[in-house]
Give the backbone structure.
Amino acid sequence: MASPLFTDRPLVIGMIHVGALPGTPRAGEPMDALVARAQAEARIYRDAGVDAVLVENMHDVPYLKRRVGPEITAAMTLLGHAAKVAAGLPTGLQILAGANLEALAAAHAAGLDFIRAEGFVFGHVADEGYIDACAGELLRYRRAIGAQGVAVFADVKKKHSSHAVTADVDIAETARAAEFFGVDGVIVTGTATGAAADLAELKAVRGAVRLPVLVGSGVTVDNVHLYLPHASALIVGSHFKAGGRWENAVEPARVQAFMARVNALREPRS
C-alpha cells in the first residue's frame, strides 16, 4: 500500500512520548493530564512546521512483550486521537514493546495514519526477550478490521536489540524481506534511543528497496544534513527534548531551530 504521507520532499516526524499509562509501574497522572501534555506537544510541533507526529508509550517501562492490556490500548487510542486533533497533522502510533496488533487497532479507531511496528520480519532478542516476526498476522488483521488506510512502517535490525541470530542476514536483505512481505516503509535506527543511525546502512537500505526509508533515531540539527538526502522521513524525539533527553519535555526552541535547518536544506526530489 503506497502511503499518501510521502511527497516529493523528506518529512520530519516529531515524537510525543506520552506519560506512563494506567497500570504501569511509573503511572501516577490522571488521563486528563496525559492528554493535555500530548496536545501541548502536538501544537509545538505544528507551530514549528513539523510534518507529522508519532505517539509512543515509552514511559511504560519495563515493557510487556507483544501484548498489552486493554487499558493501554484504550489510553493510546484516546491519546493518539487527541494529538491528531491538536496538531492537525498526519499522526502515527507505536505501542511498546512490539504490541503491533493493539497499535493497529488503536490507530484505526482513532483515525490515525500509520503505526511503527517492531519485529515485522525475521526475529531478534530485545530487552523484553525474543521477538518473533509478525508480518503475516499483522497484515491479515489489518485486512480483517478494514484498516488498510493505516500504513505500517517497520524497524529493520531495530535498536535496543541483539541480532546475532540473523547475523548472516544484513540490513539490506532484511529490508527487502520486509518489502516482499508487504510493509509500507522501513525504519533504520542506531543501537539505542538517541543513537545515530549508520549512514552506510541507510544508503544500503535505500538502494535495496523501492519503499519509503525512514531514519528512526539519532538525528540532530548538527547531523541532519547527512541523513536528509537519503531518507524519506526523519523521526526525531530526543533532540527535540530539553537537554536532548527523550524523557524530558519538548522544547519549542530546539524544534524551531531544527526545522529552520531542515527547510534550508531540503529540496523537492525529481
